[in-house]
Design a protein that fits this description.
Keywords: Monooxygenase, Oxidoreductase. InterPro entries: ABM_dom, Dimeric_a/b-barrel, Jasmonate_Hydroxylase-like. It holds the Pfam family ABM. With about 110 residues, the protein is an alpha+beta fold. About 30% of the residues lie in helices and about 35% in strands. A four-stranded antiparallel β-sheet has the order 2-3-1-4. A hairpin with a 4-residue loop joins strand 2 (about 45-55) and strand 3. Helix 1 runs antiparallel to helix 3 (about 80-90). The longest helix has 14 residues, at about 80-90. The protein starts with 12 loop residues before the first strand and ends in a 10-residue tail after the last strand.
């Protein structure tokens, strides 16, 4: 996990915003999450990911994709689908997924 946000890309591109509240059962979660991060990097059109979690357990992951095809490829990946099923069965108390097309993007970095 990085302490810097993913850079602002030239629009349009897509974001998948995955917001979760986890259960107490996190057996194999870290290993599966690491595998998902490894797999998604191989998707042509994958741009990066931001993740944050507060002490109360609310987690937000934002995945960035160049186009809808890249996002669809990730959604249909067999290992990803299996991890989704495991998440519903074991790891998540609740989650939401929002998909959006980015029409405006900019960033700032302090240079002192």
């Amino acid at each position: 996990m990085s302490d810097h946000p993913v850079e602002a890309f030239e629009p349009p591109y897509y974001v998948a915003v995955f917001t979760t509240v986890r259960t107490e059962n996190q057996s194999d979660y870290r290993e599966t999450n690491a595998r998902m991060e490894e797999l998604v990097r191989d998707i042509p059109g994958y741009l990066g990911m931001d993740h944050a979690q507060n002490p109360g357990g609310l987690g937000i992951t934002v995945g960035y994709f160049r186009d809808a095809e890249a996002l669809a490829q990730w959604r249909s990946n067999a290992e990803h689908r299996a991890a989704q099923a495991r998440g519903r069965a074991d790891w998540y108390r609740s989650y939401t997924l929002h998909i959006a097309k980015v029409e405006r993007s900019h960033g700032f970095t302090r240079t002192d």
